[in-house]
Every structure is written in structure tokens, then in C-alpha cells.
């Protein structure tokens, strides 16, 4: 803490603080790439967060790597910005952290990212248009933010359809339950709207960012595809592709990548993604590859040469920077802007300050875990909102807003009335932490066992069918 104070107090101008932030960001990246001790990395990250807060307090703006403060930026401490958006939250495609036990403040994140809140009016409209009860992720605010969803529904009501695009970065062989969130919701969207879907596996990205070989990344993509297929997607309406495979076999896809690259400057990607001069050129060019599936003519075997079909992207909100860039470029190259639906983060077992990570076995419930492993992880590691003793808990009740077991139930328990009763009983003290954890265990164990059974049915031949470029069966 002394070091932290010394660093901040030593910066008397925005430029000095900006330079300290740049140095600290580089230090965090170096520690992570060197696989330094977790305590050392956490301390460096906390200092980085503190410096970012002080930078915003001093300038009234969020820190962006590669975008130094202008001479007009405030040089005096005028207090925090009026909305305080994201002061304690770090959210980008590679880092999600907050100091708040309840997790990221999503209302402030909406303001910061400039998206729109999914309100009850939009939920009701989705129900009216698709003729189905809204998915629990919509009812409960798991998907909480959007861009242009009303426009998608307007067009759909006029019999003008759209397609879905989502993805997965295959950094390990085993996926965890948090990775299922966008796929569970995307499957529901595919079913109720009866539309085609493309799923991008960014094995190239993982090679560029992780200490993995190209062969390992491609193998992880194939293994992850099996888990994705096990979610139940319609093979006649779904195309799954590995970047390492598809980029080299689709001239149309690559042409779109090049068009996007031409319309985004190095300064822009530094400002959006925080790239530095020491990052490899592969990282700098990668965002165009994640953007390209947003345009229908990237998939001529599916859509032919049509470039006017709108894309809807369900994803976690940390992926939004890629698609803010995409939406900026789209009209300049003659394509419709993709629409987005943003989800909240799936919290780590230890609490909502960070999202679940595949690199920390104890922070995650994996899709390969046995019933015993699930039970032990939840009982041992799931952060509790309960009181220290049974007597105190019975008297004062628990805090469902910070309790990880309750958070997980909001994702996976279908019955709204049952979920609300659990909340009330836990808050009143009638339900103990151990009893709440038991409900979660009994919810997750069969869900994951059923997923494992479905995955066993996914053969290499079935994966090949899903990943072969081919016409899909749909009406637009």
C-alpha cells in the first residue's frame, strides 16, 4: 500500500500519471507472461486499478493505452466524474475484475460502453415477436444490454430475417460451465427464430496470446467444438469453423478481413484494445478476424454473395470492444452494422470480483467434473453470503447478492418462483448456507452429467460435418 501511495502522489500531472499507468500495465503483462506468483500478479493488478481510478479522478476520463491526455485535460483533482462509471471495474477482452463483492456494476458499464439496457419493454417485445416465453437469461437480466435489438425485431416483423454469430476462444481442452452461457442462449435464439448460426473458434487468437503451440490451439478448438455441439445445435442451420482452417480456404472471408484492416488505424486499435509497441503484429491485426463473421458475405456457402443480411451477436460484454470497432467500420465498407446482446460475467467460485477462469481449477466447475468434484468444489470454495454462525444467520439472514451459490442458481434454475423462494428463505435466515449449496449441487450434478452423456455421442465425423463449409437449411 505504501508503494501504491508513493506512485500516485508522485504524479502531479495527467501525463505523469498516464506514463506510470503505461509502465504498470506493461509490468502486469510481463508478470502474467512470465507466469509469476499469483500474489505478485494480484498486487500488480490492484496497483494498476488504483492508478486507473486516480487517472479518471484527475482527468475525468477513462485511461486508454495509446491515447495520452491532451493539454486541455483537467490537471487538478476535481473529484470523480458525475456517473462514476467503472471506477472500480476493469472490463476488456482479457481482464475482468472489480473491488465490489456484488460484481461488476453493469448499469455503469452500459453508460461507459454506450450500449442500451435490456428493459422489460424489450423482453416483452421479444416474447411477442417469437411467440415464446422469454429465456430465463432474458427474464433475469443475465443478458442485460444490447445494440440495435429493436432494429432486428422491426426487420423480423417485416419478414426480413437475420443470422446469429457467436464464438469461443479455445485456450484449454476442458470448458467450464460459464462458457456455456452464450451457447445456451444462442441455441434458444436459433430455435425460436429458426435462423442460421455461425460459430467462430479463435484458435489463432489463443496462439497469439497464450504460451501454446499452433497444433495445441487447433486441437483445443476441435475438443471445444464437441462441447458446443453437445448443447444441441441444429446441424442443418449451424456452421462451426476454426480460424486456422477457414481463413486459408475462404477468399471471401479473407477479403473482408483486409477491408476491415484498411479502415482501422494502429492508433485506433491501441486506444480500443490497449496494445503497445511491444505486442506482436498478429495481435494488432487479429480484431479484424473476429469482426469479419459479422458480415454475411464472409460465408458464401451459406449466404451466397448477399451482403445485406444483418447479424446478431450474443456474447459477454467484455467482447464488446471488438464489435464497437466493427460497427464503426461496417457502413464505411457498405455493410449493415451487427446488432449485439451482452451477457453478464459468470462469477468465479471465490466471488463475483472476477469471472470464472479455465486456468484456475478451483475457481471453476468444469464440464468434465464428476459429481463428487462438483460437490467438493461448491462446498469448499463457493463464496458464501451467510453469517459466521448458525445463530447469527438465523437471526440476521444471508446476503443473496454476494452469495455465489445463489448467483449460479439464477443462471441454471428454470423455475422463477422457486428461485424467489430460495432468495427469501436465505435472506430471512430460514435457509442456511449449507442447504443453499446443497440445492446448487443437486441442480448442477444432473445438468453436467447430461451434458457429458450428450458429448459422448459427438463423434469425430459429426464434428467434421458441423465444420465443413456447406449450404444451410433456412429461409431468409
UniProtKB/TrEMBL annotation:
<dbReference type="GO" id="GO:0006436">
    <property type="term" value="P:tryptophanyl-tRNA aminoacylation"/>
</dbReference>
<keyword id="KW-0030">Aminoacyl-tRNA synthetase</keyword>
<dbReference type="InterPro" id="IPR001412">
    <property type="entry name" value="aa-tRNA-synth_I_CS"/>
</dbReference>
<keyword id="KW-0067">ATP-binding</keyword>
<dbReference type="InterPro" id="IPR002306">
    <property type="entry name" value="Trp-tRNA-ligase"/>
</dbReference>
<protein>
    <recommendedName>
        <fullName>Tryptophan--tRNA ligase, cytoplasmic</fullName>
        <ecNumber>6.1.1.2</ecNumber>
    </recommendedName>
</protein>
<dbReference type="Pfam" id="PF00458">
    <property type="entry name" value="WHEP-TRS"/>
</dbReference>
<keyword id="KW-0436">Ligase</keyword>
<comment type="similarity">
    <text>Belongs to the class-I aminoacyl-tRNA synthetase family.</text>
</comment>
<dbReference type="Pfam" id="PF00579">
    <property type="entry name" value="tRNA-synt_1b"/>
</dbReference>
<dbReference type="GO" id="GO:0005737">
    <property type="term" value="C:cytoplasm"/>
</dbReference>
<dbReference type="GO" id="GO:0005524">
    <property type="term" value="F:ATP binding"/>
</dbReference>
<feature type="region of interest" description="Disordered">
    <location>
        <begin position="66"/>
        <end position="92"/>
    </location>
</feature>
<dbReference type="InterPro" id="IPR009068">
    <property type="entry name" value="uS15_NS1_RNA-bd_sf"/>
</dbReference>
<dbReference type="InterPro" id="IPR002305">
    <property type="entry name" value="aa-tRNA-synth_Ic"/>
</dbReference>
<feature type="domain" description="WHEP-TRS">
    <location>
        <begin position="13"/>
        <end position="69"/>
    </location>
</feature>
<dbReference type="InterPro" id="IPR000738">
    <property type="entry name" value="WHEP-TRS_dom"/>
</dbReference>
<dbReference type="GO" id="GO:0004830">
    <property type="term" value="F:tryptophan-tRNA ligase activity"/>
</dbReference>
<dbReference type="InterPro" id="IPR014729">
    <property type="entry name" value="Rossmann-like_a/b/a_fold"/>
</dbReference>
<keyword id="KW-0597">Phosphoprotein</keyword>
<keyword id="KW-0648">Protein biosynthesis</keyword>
<keyword id="KW-0547">Nucleotide-binding</keyword>
